[in-house]
Amino acid sequence: MHVDGVACALFWVCAPVGASPRRPRGSEVADVTRFIERHPAWALLAILAIASLLWLIFAIWPPGLEEAFGRKKVFLNAVFNGITLGGLYFLVASGFTLIFGLMRNVNLAHGSLYLFGGYVGYAISTWTGSWILSFIVAFIAVALVGVVLQIAVFRRMEGQELRQTMVTIGLSIVFADLMLSAFGGDFYQIQTPRWLIGPLELPLATAVKSSGEPVYLQYPIVRLVIFAASVVIGVAMWLGLNRTRIGMIIRAGVDDRDILAATGVRVQLVFVLVFALGAGLAGFAGVVGGTFQSISYGEDTRFLLASLVVVIVGGMGSIPGAALGALIIGLAEQLGSVYIPTYAIAVTFLIMVLVLALRPQGLLAR
Amino acid sequence: MSLTSPAQVQVTSPAAAARRWTARSWPELNNPAAWIVALILLIMPLIANGFFLIEIFGTTMILGIIALSLMFLAGYGGMVSLMQLTIAGFAGYMYAIFGVSGHPNISMGWPWWLATPMALALATIFGTLGGALAVRTAGIYTIMITLAIAAAFYFFTNQNYVIFNGHTGINNIATPHFLNVDWRSDIPFYYVVLAVAALCYLAVEYLSRAPFGLALQGVRDNPRRMAALGFNVNAHRVAAYAFASFVASLAGILQVWNYRQISPGSVGVEGCIDILIIAIVGGITRPVGPFIGALIFVILRTFALDFLVKIGLDGNRFRLLIGLGFLAVVFWSSDGMIGLWERWQRRNRSGAMQAKGTPGHG
User: With helix as H, strand as E and coil as C, how does B107-176 read?
Assistant: First the structure.
């Protein structure tokens, strides 16, 4: 055990954590039944939690509950904000988890890619006035940045996971400063197109008037559309990964890169493709974030934290895990900020601690 | 300067053996450069004025201690923790909350000699718990979890007004006065910082050769084999976190005495990453690395603005400079300044042996 021999103490290859034998992929229904068989108590708890949440959403609240808990409209708004925020978190975190799963690269510059996408989207939408175009351009621009990063930087240090992570830290500092010099510290909001402005009446009663007529929830259309889009993207990604040839190659790469390369697949090409997709998704999410919140200096850190927590909670490298984690964190953040405003972050953090304590590999990790 | 040398089996007089033991445990004693540096640091108040004493050397040593705690974890334990500044900041916040400050509704008004151990203990517990979470996974996951803890603490202090007074933070924190000395005035404070830095340095140096440190390095290199040998791998890792947290919280107390205020800005994610940069740029194979890195960082931070303006660039691009420098170090010299120095020495030595070798540069 010679200490002198570890001059490169930082850069040894970390042993992969999830080295347990992989089980073949069954259908998801079988997974659920197996989970219920193995952990009846947890399953019961989950079912109860979901059932009570559904009841809270659909039922007209009895007066006692309104007194103790505040108005139902506030609660419903928080739930909807949480779900739509979860959609945004999913878009950011899915790219992060995809890159991590395949290349074992903890891309700590992911928040910068998000912010860059937001700025590009803002520039395009003010220049051309087209909201849709800003999505396309932001996706392509950030994906190109991802391609350049993968080819010029990460390919040179393949297998040195810690060193790659260090590089992403350095890059995030450089990117943040460059963007600060280009855009300053101002807040930018991307203009919502006219056809998406305004509320939509949802068939969810928030209260009953004295005349017996129910009052329905009004919710901004743009958020619902964005949420629907993130669901579509999530499902498309899941289908792409599980039902197509390229998805099969990517999954094989996640399981064993070397054997995949040995079968003749051009692994480097797959890496570039996945990095481009992951980065592009971050850019896309930047436009989404710029539309329903705003983008400014410092948002990169916020969304990096969100992706980290989502991925830690959901399971590293798993797309369904990212979806579940994003939903949980989005809901926790919004409900927390409504009901316990000065401790909202602590709730998010506690969820992470709880998951790490009970299931360190994440909820849906294989 | 070898950190471990194989035990020599020789029969010598006890005095000689003791001398050799001292020399082996503390190689600094035989290194003239170490003595010179120590002497310069001791007589620094005669050379430097208040600005250099505190703003450059004091800050360097405080940041160096925090980075030293990271160096201990990363270099000997193989765990890159990004929450060391958070632990230091936690200690600072605890000192502000238990001690005396300009916010009587938050601070409890304990005297400094009670608030300091309390803050140290709480911050050590905080860091140990964080470490216990982080060791549940391994390798690069540590970075993610500790970064998440650091960022969560930053956002929490920012939005919590009851305990942490939100964005403003806590100001006008009282510093110790006793024996008729204001320990925050420049020269006494410099010596306090110097003493703590020296203690931490020697403690890390000592631990790296103590059985615990050796076991920790074994755990870093091959956890499975160490487990098979009967070592409790996770207990070693958590103990390393506990020690590193204590070191970091010492620096946190010094930090809060130095600035007399603490706010979310003191525990920001940028700051946490700066600590990593300091440790990496200095080199994480030796405890002296973080102090070298901190000196470079502080000098850059203090003078980069003037320098950049002088060569006709935007003075606000200081962080760009830091980021690019960090990238350069990660790309070309994997073990920082210490690595460069060792390579230079090696080249000199081989050059001398060949008698016509090119002199080393850079």
Answer: CCCCCHHHHHHHHHHHHHHHHHHHHHHHCCCCCCHHHHHHHHHHHHHHHHHHHCCCCCCCCCCECCCCCC
Which of A104, A181, A345 is nearest residue B317 as measured by Cβ atoms?
A181
Provide the token pair at B228. 């098979």
pLDDT at residue A24 tops 70: no
Query: For strand B181-182 and strand B177-178, is the pairing parallel, antiparallel, or unpaired?
Result: antiparallel
Question: Which residues, numbered 65 to 104 in chain A, qualify as contacts with chain B under a Cβ-Cβ cut-off of 8 Å?
Answer: 104
- A208 beta partners: A214
Q: Is residue B139 part of a domain?
A: yes
- Residue B132's closest chain A neighbor by CA? A357
ipTM score for this prediction: 0.77
B217–A3 CB contact, under 8 Å: yes
How far apart CA A11 and CA B200 sit, in angstroms, is: 25
Chain B residues lying within 8 Å of A154, measured CB to CB? none
Any idea which residue has 């933070």 for tokens? B169
3-state secondary structure of B181: strand
Using a CB-CB cut-off of 8 Å, the residues of chain A touching B136 are 356-357, 360
Measure CB to CB from residue A173 to each of B151, B217, B319 and give the nearest one.
B319
What's the structural domain count of chain B? 1
Taking CA–CA distances from A312, the nearest residue in chain B reads B145
Residue B126 has pLDDT above 90, yes or no: yes
Domain membership of residue B259 as a residue range:
48-268
CB contact under 8 A, B145 and A356: yes
Render pLDDT for A74-99 as a digit per residue (tens, 0 to 9): 888 888 889 999 999 999 998 898 88
Pairing of strands A199-208, A214-220: antiparallel
Q: Hey, CA dihedral for A286, A292, A295, A298, is it positive or negative?
A: negative
Q: For A200, list phi and psi in degrees, rounded to 5.
A: -120, 140
pLDDT reading at A7 higher than 70: no
Max intra-chain CA distance, chain B = 73
Chain A residues 203-262 within an 8 A CB cutoff of chain B: none
Interface membership of B24 toward A (CB under 8 Å): no
Does B130 fall in a domain? yes
Nearest chain B CA: its distance from A324 CA (Å): 18
Residues 213-232 of B with CB under 8 A from A: 214, 217-218, 220-221, 223
CB-CB neighbors (< 8 A) of B334 in chain A: 7-8, 10-11, 163
Residue B93 lies in a domain: yes
For residue B68, how many other CB atoms are within 10 A of its CB?
34
Q: Cβ(A205)–Cβ(A60) under 8 Å?
A: yes
Tell me, yes or no, whether B97 lies in a domain. Answer: yes
Q: Read off the tokens for A37.
A: 């068989």
- Mean pLDDT, residues A306-332 taken together: 88
